[in-house]
Amino acid sequence: MKKLFLISLILMMPMFAQASGGPSIKLDSMEADASDKGSLQRGMQTYVNYCLGCHTAQYQRYIRAAEDLHIPEDLVIEHLIFSDQKIGDQMTSAMDPKLAAQWFGATPPDLTNEINLRGRSISTPIF
Ligand code: HEC
User: pTM (2 decimals)?
Assistant: First the structure.
């Protein structure tokens, strides 16, 4: 199950944007393709660049994401880890949850199990 975490998260990004409440915004539609390795790798890039600052994935390790998405470890270390974390570390954020709650009005939830919370299943990608 853990293996599919990032892939699931990446595929669900447009859904998250719609589910986050507030004013309704019309989003482009998309077809998720779990066998599109390049797309999934770019999703990882998007996640660590834009989401991980607020949302941890604390039950997932960078190295596991690298293996699952076939991203060489040295590239993950060089381009996808922006702190003093090591590739074997869990994907946590330096943001203090109490301060986050003060700043945003709610603590950004950990996204590791978001797929389960939403009751979705995504089949194992083939690559
Ligand atoms: C600036 C901080 C910040 C960033 C960056 C951010 N989020 Fe959030 N996100 C939040 C906060 C705060 C909440 C909690 C909102 C609430 O509970 O009202 C949240 C909620 C969520 C939720 C739960 C929504 C629900 O319906 O329960 C998901 C899923 C989510 N974010 C996904 C993402 C993804 C994917 C990205 C990157 C593309 C992202 N977020 C980037 C702060 C952020």
Answer: 0.81
CA-nearest residue for atom 27, ligand 1, is 20
**CB of 123 within 8 A of CB of 33?**
no
Q: pLDDT tens, 68-119?
A: 999 999 999 999 999 999 999 999 999 999 999 999 999 999 998 877 777 6
The structural domains of the chain, with segments of one domain joined by +, span: 2-19+35-117
Ligand 1: does its nearest atom lie under 6 Å from the Cβ of 55?
Answer: yes
Q: Does 106 sit in the ligand 1 pocket, CB within 6 Å?
A: yes
Encoded tokens for 38? 């390049």
What DSSP designation does 30 have? -
32 lines ligand 1 (CB under 6 A): no
